[in-house]
Every structure is written in C-alpha cells, then in structure tokens.
C-alpha cells in the first residue's frame, strides 16, 4: 500500500506561510472547530438558548460567534472558527451538502467570515484538507491585511 505524505503539499505550504507570519509578528492562534454536544456548545462556544433553538447547521455567523467566544476565553491574538459538511453524507440545504464550510477568524480588528464549497463532492478526506487550507488562507489574508470585514 502506497503511503501518502501528511500534510499534503497545499496544506503544508499555507501552514508554513501562516507560521512564519505569526512568528514574525509574535502573535498566537487557536482553533475552534465544530462542537457536537449540547454541553460543549454551551461551555466552549457560549451558545445561548436562541442558538440552540434556531440551529440549522453551520453558518458564517455561527462560526464567527464560536471564534469570538474562544478568543475571549483563551486570549489568543487570533482564533479560527470552522464548521462544515465533510461528507460523505449530508443533507439538501446549501450548508449540509458535502464540501460546504463556514469559516471565521476573530481578531482585535473584528471577525472575518467566509463560506465556500470545496468542489470535492462527497470525498471526506479531500474536503477535510480543503477546509484546513481555506481556513489557513483566510488567516493568512487577515495577517497580511488583505481580508475584508
């Protein structure tokens, strides 16, 4: 069986670029990813009754709240929030189709949001790598001052 390198090249390249920028600036980053239990959503994401009642899957606003709450809790310079549908199963709404991801980066200047479809369909592994690449790309854009609020 052939072995595959991890991280894959696109992920390794963007991770190195982000790492270099963070070191250069002397800043820190934390990651807040999907929370699956009610208890963790309340404890770690600061969810309210309204969030719980109205939940319809991942959205940019939802992950922005996750990133903002985690940044306040941990004191990191930046927090990347991510939630998506990696597949192979999913649903029929836009944010439940495999390949969909909602991203946010919380910083002192505000919270930057992005949502996209990786285009990898039901391929869970490719979607997971794609989500990471896109999250780090958004963080890089924030670090370089290229992201728009």
TrEMBL record:
Pfam families xref list: CinA
Coiled coil: none
Xref: SUPFAM superfamilies: CinA-like
Alphabetized InterPro entries for the sequence: CinA-like_C, CinA_C
Domain CinA C-terminal: 36-143
Protein name: CinA C-terminal domain-containing protein
